[in-house]
Each structure stands twice: as structure tokens, then as C-alpha cells.
Amino acid sequence: MRVKTLVILYCLFFSPSTLAAELTTQERLVAKAETALQSFLTAPDSEWLQDHLQDALAVMIIPRMIKAGFVFGVSGGDAVMIAKHTKTQNWSNPAFYKVGAFGVGLQAGVQKSTVLVLVRTEAGLRSLMRSSGKLGAGGSIAVGPIGGGSSTQLTTDMVSFTRAKGLFAGVSLDGVSIGVDTEANEAHYRAGVTARDILINQSVKRPNSDKLARALSKALK
From CA 138, how far away is CA 145, in angstroms rounded? Predict the structure, then answer.
């Protein structure tokens, strides 16, 4: 009887929903980014991405990019980025970014998509170390090939992939605004931490924050 009571108490206090609620906002975002990474890598039309992932200096993932509006369109989302150390080749803990844009065009309704960006050059990586800016400014960006285009040669600093409703969508991110989410980075690590500390120097870590890095390393084996 006592064992049964303990089991009931465990279920009440440590149910999956309770444990999930204990995760921080940043931890939930990283978990979503890991799921998004797997969805990209296991998609049937991801040959180019799979073949060129190992060449990336950094990978940025936006688990949910929302675009909404009519005539005037607003888009945005929270992003996670990890980078590869130039000497050790180890992937960093995640740094957090805010992505958003404002544009004018014929738009209606709400579109949700998932975005992955391969950062392939030092210029592209440097452009993302600024506190704010636009994708494509200081580092060119192109839409990644879909399907059987694994041999396609691209010379841009960054390559983006977008999936909406489970399918790849050729959506350009050129000109989309992006900035380091200082508040999220400091909440997850410590006050005063910078994106460079996390991604380039890799001098800042947090227990159990390397899950995305491990998932990426596993995919490259």
C-alpha cells in the first residue's frame, strides 16, 4: 500500500508536464531547436544540407518563424546558434538571438515555418557577432538547394533552409533583421556574457546545455 502511495505521489509531482514546466524559456527553445534539426536532417529532400553540414562554421535554427499580416507583414522568432571551434572543432553551447523583419507586400493570414541557416565563412560568422543587423549585410545569404541538388555549388557566406507544414519552402531571408538576445543569454549563463564568449571563445558553458551540439556531432558521424 505504501509503495502504491509513493507511485501516485511521484506521478503527481514529477509528471512529464510538471518536469516540462520546470524548464526555462531558453531550455525549451533549445529542445525545440534540436527537434527542428532532426526534422531537417531526416527530410527526404535534404541531400545538399546533409552533404554540406560538415563544412559549416556555425548553425542557426529558428524553431518557429511566424509571418502574419495583410499588406503590411510582420515576421519574427527566437533563434539558437552554435558554432564550431576553429582548433578543437568542438561545437559550442547555444547562443540566443532574436529574429524579426518588417516588410510591405501582398500578404494575408499567418504562416509558421522552421528555419535553419548554415554559416559557412568567417565573414558570415562575424556578421552575426554584432548586437544587431540584417541577414545578408556583411555576409551574403542564399536559399539552399532542395531535392536532388546536392552537387549545386554555392559561394555565399550563409545558406538558409525553410520548412513550412513539413515541406521545404524556398523563402529568402536576405534583409531579415537579427540581433543577439542579450537578456536570454545572460539569463541562461551569467550577467555580462556575450555571443562571442559563447560561440567563438567557448569560455561560457552551462550543465546540460550541450544537447544540441551533441545532436549535431552525432549527425556528422
Answer: 22
From residue 92, alpha-carbon distances to 50, 58, 65, 112, 220 in Å are: 20, 9, 23, 28, 15
What is the rounded CA–CA span in Å between residue 167 and residue 116?
Answer: 13
Could you tell me the pLDDT band of residue 25, with boundaries at 50, 70 and 90?
very high
The whole-number pLDDT of residue 62 equals 93
pTM of the complete model: 0.82
- Of the pLDDT bands very low, low, confident and very high (cuts 50, 70, 90), residue 6 is very low
User: What does DSSP say about strands 141-143 and 158-164: parallel, antiparallel, or unpaired?
Assistant: parallel
